Amino acid sequence: MKVFRQRLTVWDVFPLLWLMFLGFPVIGFFGEARTPAQAALFWGLLAGFLAVYWRVFMRPHSERWALIGWAYTLLTYLLLFPVIGGTASAFLIYGGSLIGMQGSVALALWLAFLNAQVMVLPLWTGQYGTGDLGWLVPNVVFTLVAAYANHASYRQRITSDRLAQVQAEKEALAADAERERIARDLHDLLGHTLSVIVLKSELASKLAERDPARAAGEIREVERISREALSEVRAAVSGYRGSGLKAELARAKVALDAAGVRLEYGGQPGPLPPEVEHGMSMVLREAVTNVVRHARASECRVSITRAGGYSRLEIVDDGVGGAAPEGTGLTSMRERVRALGGEFTRDGTAGTRLVASFPGAEGSGPRAGSERLSGPLPSSPRRRPQ
User: Fold this and answer.
1) Which residues contact 367 (CB under 8 A, 6 or more apart)?
2) Which are the contacts of 346, defined by CB distance < 8 A and separation ≥ 6?
3) b/e per residue 220-231 (b: at least 16 CB within 10 A)
4) Is the pTM of this model over 0.85?
5) What percent of the chain has pLDDT over 70?
6) What is the Cα–Cα distance from 10 to 197, expressed in whole angstroms?
């Protein structure tokens, strides 16, 4: 299956930070004079390691490359240990981290355990002294921990990417279903009316010479039918525009269901100014995207209430929360709300709670503090059977 990739984030490039530990083998290399052959071996193997490391972590959906990376680090250690000694064990720790980037936790831990055994082997052959235990034991632990931690990260990343793919596919299906609904409604609305207009126009044309009075009557009837059709089309278009928030709620339910997150919806939004409804829909869409991709939540609550001339959208999830710096999505939501003269707040104390207040509420609706009505979720659009 082709895996959908999200845009690159800071966590995607975080593994590059761990390359700073290559300083240990580099320091070991420069610790004494080297022959040209040793220098060529060391720098050649180091360059190859960087290429393999980049391939595994920057394009992490190939388990074959994880195995190649692990084998390369083991070979690099065996070739460089006679040259730089124990500092070459850094490559065995990297091997543990690389082998974690594949689907089998058992394989990752067994191969990391093999790396650990290779690391302590010089201790049994007398090449290490007891004074080396101070760094040898932590390195063995780091090798095993790196394998397990990167395996967990790999599984989470794969799951997140597949959920994003499912969400994109669901949105495409919803868009197709919406186009089919509009086409069906327009056909039902205008098909019969236009057929009547054609027939009466043809009749008026035939009667124009022999019965002008009757022909004029038919033309007036065509005018009446056309005006009625125009009114119906305008009403239908207004209905489509007014269903933006409901349609977004339906898409949110589809996306959250696909991610295994239960959606609860409360409130009756009532009539909203078009710009407010559009802004609220976009905030809801971005917030739900964040819940699906990052929150690791099991429940998401959405409510729309009224207070003091403001329409208030609240999205709460029970995910990881936190006070991490705002990314593009949160910044976009904040700017969108401010552009409409509203206010946007975020609270990551227990899960994440987003509140967007928009001015210019129309009509009457539930006041803040009043009992919210549990509004039924709009039905998720489905593709008609072929």
Assistant:
1) 305, 306, 307
2) 326, 330, 352, 353, 354, 355
3) ebbeeeeeebee
4) no
5) 80
6) 62
